[in-house]
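Key result, reporting period 2: structure in, sequence out.
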């Protein structure tokens, strides 16, 4: 659409610190409309903190974050809630309510919005269940009755409940076997293309980076480096070299033996 900002997310001079520990020190990042951006980094680099900061669950010490053209630091609570309704989040463990059925979990964001009838919520929940490849009879089950892969798909269906423009995924393939992880990757790419989503995905899964990510953001030295897989493989930084040329990268078919 003419006039639309090519960047869905713009982060400038972001600082996140906890006590004396500085996780991000002047971090800059643009996320382009319609891309799948993978975010990687070593243990303690602040991948999940970055996600939580973007979606407003963590307040940065310094810097500005603009999502869909709006600065999250400048919004009051009501305006921030309206903005948050324009994105969906799949947390690492699904974060499902154990006492609610699949349908009720998916409907939770709809209930929070408050202007959707019960009949329409039931219809929409059924559509979302089918969208993520679950059988319709899963709607009446509880999370404890589902496999780990099915719970991931329920969490994804809930993230898509309000037809978001942006989808945030925190380690979406963690805990899945290789076949399940590959299927989930393909589901994410299929949904991204069919729904026109922008996807920000925190991951440690090299197969996901190869299969579905358009660009990759690497958190190193409290900053961030962004590029395509080919560009990052040529980056001389020691951690990046180790990550993209080590044994796991060779197993994923990224680096040559």
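The corresponding designed sequence is given below.
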């Amino acid at each position: 659409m003419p006039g639309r900002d090519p960047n869905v997310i713009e982060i400038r001079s972001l600082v996140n610190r906890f006590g004396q520990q500085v996780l991000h020190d002047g971090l800059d990042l643009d996320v382009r409309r319609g891309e799948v951006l993978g975010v990687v980094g070593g243990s303690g680099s602040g991948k999940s903190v970055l996600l939580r900061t973007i979606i407003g669950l963590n307040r940065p010490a310094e810097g500005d974050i603009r999502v869909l053209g709006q600065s999250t630091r400048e919004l009051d609570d009501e305006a921030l809630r309206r903005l948050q309704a324009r994105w969906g989040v799949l947390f690492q463990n699904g974060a499902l309510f154990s006492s609610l059925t699949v349908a009720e979990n998916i409907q939770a964001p709809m209930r929070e919005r408050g202007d959707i009838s019960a009949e329409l919520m039931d219809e929409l929940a059924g559509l979302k269940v089918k969208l993520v490849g679950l059988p319709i009879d899963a709607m009446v089950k509880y999370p404890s009755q589902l496999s780990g892969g099915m719970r991931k798909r329920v969490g994804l269906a809930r993230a898509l409940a309000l037809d978001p423009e942006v989808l945030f995924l925190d380690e979406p393939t963690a805990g899945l076997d290789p076949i399940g992880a590959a299927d989930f990757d393909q589901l994410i790419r299929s949904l991204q293309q069919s729904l026109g989503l922008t996807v920000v995905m925190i991951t440690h899964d090299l197969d996901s980076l190869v299969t579905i990510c358009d660009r990759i953001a690497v958190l190193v030295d409290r900053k961030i480096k962004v590029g395509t897989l080919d560009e990052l493989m040529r980056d001389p930084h020691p951690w990046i070299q180790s990550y993209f040329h080590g044994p796991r990268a060779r197993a994923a078919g990224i680096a040559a033996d």
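The chain is about 40% helix and 25% strand. Residues 69 and 202 are 22 Å apart (CA to CA). This case is discussed further under Risks and Mitigation.
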